[in-house]
Amino acid sequence: MVLPESKDLTHLFSEETNARKPSPLKTCIHLFNDPNIIFLGGGLPMSDYFPWDNLTVDSPLPPFTKGIGAPIDPVTNDVLKADLKKNEKLHEGDIPFARALQYGFSAGQPELLKFLREHTTIIHDLQYQDWDIVATTGNTNSWESTLRVFCNRGDVILAESHSFSSSLSAAQAQGVVTFPVPIDENGIIPSKLANILDNWTPGAPKPKLLYTIPTGQNPTGSSLSDERKEEIYKIAQKHDFLIIEDEPYYFLQVGKYIKDIKERSSIESDVKPSHKEFLQSLAKTFLSLDTDGRVIRLDSFSKVLAPGSRLGWITGSKKLLAAYLALHEMTIQAPAGFTQALVSSTLNKWGQSGYIDWLICLRHEYMLKRNDAIDILFKYIPESPVFTINPPIAGMFFTVNIDASAHPEFSTKFESDPLKVEQHIYETVVKNGVLVVPGIWFITDGETTPAQPKESKESSNPNIIFFRGTYAAVSPDKLETGLKRLADVLKQEFGFN
Length: 497
What we know:
Strands 3-11-10-9-8-4-5 form a 7-stranded mixed beta sheet, with helices on both faces. The protein has a 4-stranded antiparallel beta sheet with strand order 12-13-15-14. The longest helix is centred in the C-terminal third of the chain and has 44 residues, at about 335-380. The radius of gyration is 24 Å and the shape is globular. Helices cover about 35% and strands about 15% of the residues. It has helices at about 15-20, 95-100, 110-125, 140-150, 165-175, 190-200, 225-240, 260-270, 275-280, 285-290, 320-330, 335-380, 420-430, 475-495, and strands spanning about 55-60, 75-80, 130-135, 155-160, 175-180, 185, 185-190, 210, 240-245, 295-300, 310-315, 385-390, 395-405, 435-440, 465-470. α4 (about 140-150) runs parallel beside α5 (about 165-175), α6 packs parallel to α7 and α12 (about 335-380) packs across α14 (about 475-495). The protein is α/β, with parallel strands linked by helices.
């Protein structure tokens, strides 16, 4: 079957994007690698003057039978050679180091992009043909670029009512208004989203973007179901906005928490399901539902390889990605050559099958970490309507909901203000040697007239506060110590001692 092309959604571009002219110098950079051209057109230093000839690293090889974090066999060195001119044979997928450290290839090095395109085809059942990938310096960069590509100052965008604080701050810094979409333990509530847009103030410009973290949402840990994604996509088509699918935690889908340890033992021991089983277990993506080219997916290696790699990629319609590339040519130029060379070499040595082996092992490790964290919370936090423990099915965050009105001093010391209770608990747990993050830090706040639709807020208990913690950052013994300290503070504050 021949897939259709994406729709032309360039009418959603910002004034900045429409005004930007391509850099003339970038139109000829590809000629630098043409052996028939004597290139005198750009300020590119000779690779002879680079102080590095190679890069050697140790990395494991699939199928990772020793497990993630096990000692690495030193015979699996990756050696990235300096330059093809020295007649040194490169492994398939290796980027010549001299090229990696040079200007050019703002979309990303070809060897890396080839791997990522194949990976995208395996993971997502794309529904249109003219899609592509642009490499980035991670999802923070991808999101900041997205705001610049599509939004003008004063534009309104939609975001989950609690969302990643850095993403909200990036929008605020550009003068973009964030409008909160109600969520529950399963993410965005489609009926609430539809109601917001159906009742949008007549004549007021509707939002161009919906920013969402569908899997292991930061901060709530919630994950959107396939059914909700389908509903949300139809709403996007009806109201002509783009879905920005920010998915750093997508491969950390750890399944439903099972409290009975005996019942879950067989799941925990199944370290290596087949590739087919693994792929079938993954949630549908907005990208796989997209027939119009109105989904822009942000992926990153931060949570599956290393945050300091500062390497990610954007997937979307070529019509829209052209604007990202024009922006990046004048801002980041390209992701770091060191990182691209290292990651491309590692991934191509692993191959697509080996990378899936890695993701399977990584998911298993996070499932064990999630189970340990939730077990500990249930062990130390009293069973009570005051506290609700929310086990995530993906990602690296858990939340504990607290009814602030149950605090003995709620109406006196805290003047019936749940946020004062939240701040007090935060300061108290820090004094007791553990850090969990208050939900107030993640509130999507910015709705303004004239865009004031009806029922924009959740109709939930206004006295519920929550704290976000992670099970990803520390060893098991420190995790238990930290969660016990949190539980001790909560018991003392709410009179459970």
